[in-house]
Specification:
This protein is of the alpha/beta class. α4 crosses α5. The protein starts with a strand and ends with a helix.
Length: 279
């Protein structure tokens, strides 16, 4: 599945004096089977762009092409359901997606809505729970008695139960502790590497972007101002806060220690230093 965004603009409250152009002539392509981060300052248009990818919003002008599906201003509501099955969206605040009495019922809602039988639904729920690391003890628990990280996993499982080809997440590590953030990123890596999912994440955490992602899109004031693979992006772009690993490597370089750009974690940096000393 390929994603092409062509000359997309979006204006909020377009018929009022409060109209505001959130997206301004966006042109970008997203590669399938990779993890792509969308970064930028608050209010730059990241979430608005994300919501176009599964037709929560329709462009004021331009088009979004996902395989053979073309989304434009004139796309009819009844044609959007197949797209929303292909492109799953997880909001930043997971509790806004959870509404059923139990974890099982919440995850089951999507498959049932798309016509799955009770038996098929049960299989999809159990598979989705396994993917996100929730065991059988969660089935009858109330969604609203879970921790923030657990709620997020239930929300992701509810989307995965539909087996989308593309998974979009808005700030999936927000509010999680460092270990929770690592576990979330490992989950997304597993979905990409072993389940052929295309992962798109809106985030402010450049350290996670540098460590885990393949590609990065930088937005500012409703425009895409840069797009590249992660390693080259952070090598060339001084318009963002550099990840701590890069800052550490720059300090080492001032002391005459050169570390390759392929070392993306502190552990990998230390391993290069160790191997260089052995040589």
């Amino acid at each position: 599945m390929s994603i092409s965004i062509n000359h997309v603009s979006y204006v909020y409250d377009s018929e009022t004096e409060l109209k505001w152009k959130a997206l301004d002539d966006i042109n970008v392509a997203i590669t399938k089977f990779k993890m792509t981060a969308i970064i930028g300052k608050t209010g730059c248009g990241k979430t608005t762009l994300m919501q176009h990818l599964n037709a929560l919003l329709k462009p004021t002008s331009g088009e979004v092409i996902i395989d053979d599906f073309v989304l434009t201003k004139t796309s009819k509501h009844h044609t959007l359901k197949p797209l929303r099955k292909k492109v799953g969206l997880v909001f930043q605040f997971s509790e806004s997606q959870l509404f059923e009495e139990t974890v099982f019922k919440d995850i089951a809602f999507g498959p049932k809505n798309y016509g799955a039988t009770d038996e098929e639904t049960a299989i999809k729920v159990h598979q989705a729970m396994q993917l996100v690391g929730l065991d059988e003890s969660y089935i009858h628990r109330s969604c609203f008695q879970l921790s923030g990280g657990e709620k997020r996993r239930v929300a992701i499982a509810g989307i995965l139960a539909l087996d989308p080809e593309i998974l979009i997440l808005d700030e999936p590590t927000a509010g999680l502790d460092p270990q929770g953030s690592i576990e979330m990123m490992q989950l997304l890596l597993n979905l990409k590497n072993h389940h052929n999912k295309t992962i798109i994440v809106v985030t402010h955490d450049n350290d996670l972007v540098y460590t885990y992602f393949d590609d990065v899109i930088l937005m500012d004031q409703g425009k895409v101002i840069a797009q590249n693979n992660v390693l080259d992006f952070f090598e060339d772009n001084q318009a963002v806060v550099l990840p701590q690993v890069i800052q550490f490597k720059q300090l080492l370089l001032k002391k005459g220690v050169h570390i390759s750009k392929y070392a993306r974690t502190i552990k990998e940096v230390l391993e290069e230093i160790k191997n260089d000393r052995i040589r």
